[in-house]
Amino acid sequence: MVRAGLIGLEFYSPDTGKWKQAHMNARYVILQVLIEAGEDFVKVEKITGEDGKPDLRITLDRTKIISVGKPAISKFLRKLQVYKSTGDYEAGKEMYDFYSNVDNTTEPHFLRLRDVVMARKQPRKMFVQHNTTANGDSVEMKSYEPTATGLIESFIDRFPSNDIDDYLYSLWDKDRSYF
């Protein structure tokens, strides 16, 4: 979750000061809460990677998960729950916005670290479904590259007929009673 909070900076827009995905915002908030817990429980530092380019290192002291991390998250969630239970929207929003803030005023200067996150961004992984075919007594599996081309090839092999719409409609119709 700590790593996801840092990588989640990809989904923060410095131009608008807004988060593009709520879940990434929440992961960043958790990262902020754990850093705020202190005692060197979580540290984020800028380093030089093996390739000579800027990189980031996250350090989490596993021996302090129960003694530092758990109480920090517990305190945060308790405050958030009190605000929700009492309907104190303003106080809850103020607290959450505080932890959601991405700036360079305090260490570890997350707005600058976002530049490193963006420079190290990897292409999104694609899940491309394998296909199996029965040939007599044997079953063969065909794999595809995890690319857009592989995804299309997998679909074409699975649905070789030109009347795909009719076939997909019949599958939908067969399962309709379950939904």
Description:
Keywords: Hydrolase, Metal-binding. It holds the Pfam family Peptidase_M49. One of its GO terms (cellular component) is cytoplasm. One of its GO terms (molecular function) is dipeptidyl-peptidase activity. InterPro entries: Peptidase_M49 (IPR039461). The radius of gyration is 24 Å and the shape is elongated. The protein folds into two domains: 2-119, no CATH class; 131-178, no CATH class. The chain is of the alpha+beta class and 179 residues long. The mean pLDDT is 93. The relative contact order is 0.10. The chain has helices spanning 2-7, 22-36, 65-86, 89-100, 110-119, 148-158, 164-175; strands spanning 12-13, 18-19, 42-48, 54-60, 131-135, 138-142. The protein is built from seven helices and six strands. The protein is 49% helix and 16% strand. The protein has a two-stranded antiparallel ribbon with strand order 1-2.
